[in-house]
């Protein structure tokens, strides 16, 4: 069975723009020992409601700015469109459902993988689930400030996404490492939507850097509706290292929604 050979990592986000931040444990007494921990001083923490309101206001202005910025970006040089009968489309639907399994549920207070898991991974085992506030990934999705990526010279990435990734990277790394020890033939797939897709990009790079047994075939990310994560040096690094990241965009998304056939996907 396909899914027996699959370690799936679910990252998804609720439409909640505000999250709690890195726990105190992330702050290192010896920043030099871990380049990721060295970032702790610049990652903000929400401590009270007044601060929260401020964060929400900044979130609105962030999304406005981001929209402006995105509209000035050049179009992707290579874009592929798939019909709804293609394998790529079907595969994308699968990963979209997996994202929905962690994202679209009645209650954010308790984990219930529900019908999405039953229909997509009937023999799957959820080892660890992450979602956004209040239960899951700590991080700050509205810090759009670009900061140096601790392990990619010259690359800059969004601080909010990076802080969320740092929050879960060791848990994810240890889980995948242990599973690969037990099952070296496992395929690792990272799936994420929206903010979770942004974290998924950084996490895929992190896994590729830390687990030499992973390569462009056995590590693949399916990222849906992903925001921009970093600068050109970051994108160049991903390309140069052959890290397989499939960015999926429904043509119906955003400004294209009136123009295109809804039953196609653009990669
Ligand atoms: C694909 O799209 C066509 C035209 O919109 C629709 O009739 C058909 O049911 C769709 N097929 C699948 C498998 O979703
Ligand atoms: C999923 O499957 C389990 C076990 O078969 C069942 O108990 C549960 O009701 C199902 N949930 C949904 C939402 O289909
Ligand atoms: C990727 O790694 C797997 C397992 O280590 C190996 O079997 C496979 O040949 C590698 N593929 C490539 C393209 O390097
Ligand atoms: C990436 O893939 C290309 C073509 O498949 C190959 O020539 C190159 O050596 C690979 N680079 C790395 C770092 O694996």
UniProtKB/TrEMBL annotation:
<keyword id="KW-0732">Signal</keyword>
<protein>
    <recommendedName>
        <fullName>Fungal lipase-type domain-containing protein</fullName>
    </recommendedName>
</protein>
<dbReference type="GO" id="GO:0016787">
    <property type="term" value="F:hydrolase activity"/>
</dbReference>
<dbReference type="InterPro" id="IPR051299">
    <property type="entry name" value="AB_hydrolase_lip/est"/>
</dbReference>
<keyword id="KW-0378">Hydrolase</keyword>
<dbReference type="InterPro" id="IPR002921">
    <property type="entry name" value="Fungal_lipase-type"/>
</dbReference>
<dbReference type="InterPro" id="IPR029058">
    <property type="entry name" value="AB_hydrolase_fold"/>
</dbReference>
<dbReference type="Pfam" id="PF01764">
    <property type="entry name" value="Lipase_3"/>
</dbReference>
<feature type="domain" description="Fungal lipase-type">
    <location>
        <begin position="149"/>
        <end position="253"/>
    </location>
</feature>
<dbReference type="GO" id="GO:0006629">
    <property type="term" value="P:lipid metabolic process"/>
</dbReference>
<feature type="signal peptide">
    <location>
        <begin position="1"/>
        <end position="18"/>
    </location>
</feature>
């Amino acid at each position: 069975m396909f899914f027996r050979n699959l370690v799936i990592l679910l990252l998804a986000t609720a439409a909640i723009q505000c999250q709690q931040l890195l726990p105190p444990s992330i702050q290192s007494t010896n920043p030099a020992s871990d380049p990721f921990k060295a970032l702790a001083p610049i990652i903000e923490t929400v401590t009270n409601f007044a601060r929260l309101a401020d964060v929400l206001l900044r979130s609105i202005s962030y999304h406005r700015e981001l929209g402006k910025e995105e509209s000035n970006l050049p179009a992707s040089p290579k874009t592929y469109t798939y019909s709804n009968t293609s394998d790529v489309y079907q595969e994308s639907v699968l990963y979209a459902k997996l994202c929905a399994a962690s994202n679209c549920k009645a209650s954010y207070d308790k984990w219930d993988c529900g019908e999405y898991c039953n229909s997509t991974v009937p023999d799957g085992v959820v080892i660890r689930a992450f979602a956004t506030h209040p239960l899951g990934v700590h991080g700050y999705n509205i810090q759009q400030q670009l900061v140096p990526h601790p392990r990619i010279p010259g690359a800059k990435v969004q601080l909010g996404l990076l802080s969320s990734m740092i929050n879960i990277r060791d848990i994810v790394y240890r889980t995948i490492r242990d599973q690969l020890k037990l099952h070296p033939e496992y395929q690792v797939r990272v799936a994420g939507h929206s903010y979770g897709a942004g974290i998924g990009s950084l996490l895929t790079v992190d896994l590729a850097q830390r687990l030499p047994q992973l390569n462009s075939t056995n590590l693949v990310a399916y990222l849906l509706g992903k925001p921009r994560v970093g600068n050109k040096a970051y994108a160049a690094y991903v390309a140069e290292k052959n890290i397989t990241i499939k960015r999926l965009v429904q043509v119906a998304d955003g400004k294209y929604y009136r123009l295109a056939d809804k039953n196609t996907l653009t990669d």
